[in-house]
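User: Last request for today: this protein with Z5A, please.
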Amino acid sequence: MPRGALIVLEGLDRSGKSTQVDRLVARLNAEGYRARLHKFPDRTTAIGQMIDAYLRSTAELDDHAIHLLFSANRWECHSAIEKDLADGITVVADRYAFSGIAFSAAKGLDFTYCLSPDTGLPLPDVTLYLTLSPETAAQRSAYGAERYENVDTQTAVRAQFAKVAEEVARWHGDGRWVEVSAEGSVEEVERDIWGAVKGVMVRVGDEPVGRLWE
Ligand code: Z5A
Ligand code: MG
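Assistant: Here's the final one, the structure of the complex with Z5A:
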């Protein structure tokens, strides 16, 4: 049985990740693939509840501590993800380790430090990075009330995501980080995402799952 693929959507605030992950899961199902959605942070776990309180600013945490909690929130899900992949279920993730690096490095934490706690997590077969100009983002909806939902943070995060893309290419070669313009309509973005994903579904076959930053 071919394994499932690990497909990650990343991007700035309001680039449409949550809109598109639902559509991607539905499209995969319609094409005959079993697929399951994972959102990061997963706010349902004990660690996820601490992260949720931090994001809603009802709790304060040291920058290193929250960085490690975001990573721990991925580690507590990794065996479920790996089981799904082995069982032939494709996992679609709404954000992953790359958000963890970009947001913490944007606050000034050392970039190499930011990579380290996620070392060894399942390597995404492809990460689709949804790109959106600040002008279009501003037209979509007002910023929410959560921490990081402001222009300065989002600008700093954008710069860090560019470094993350270079790091993915350096460690894991070309083709694992694909930029998709999120400027178009929901349907146009969905079409471009499917265009990038369908080849991955054929390619992964019985390739072993890789390890991040290894
Ligand atoms: N974070 C971190 O620091 N470290 C980590 O390790 C991780 C995360 C994993 C919470 O994330 C915060 O945690 C996040 C990063 C940090 N902080 N920020 N910013 P989250 O994923 O829970 O945040 P979210 O609020 O769910 O996602 P989002 O980025 O704000 O939005 P989105 O999912 O990309 O967009 P959307 O909800 O699909 O769409 C936004 C709006 O645009 C909505 O009104 C849509 O109807 C509309 N939309 C979507 N697509 C289109 C198109 N194509 N045209 C027009 N309008 C559109
Ligand atoms: Mg979202």
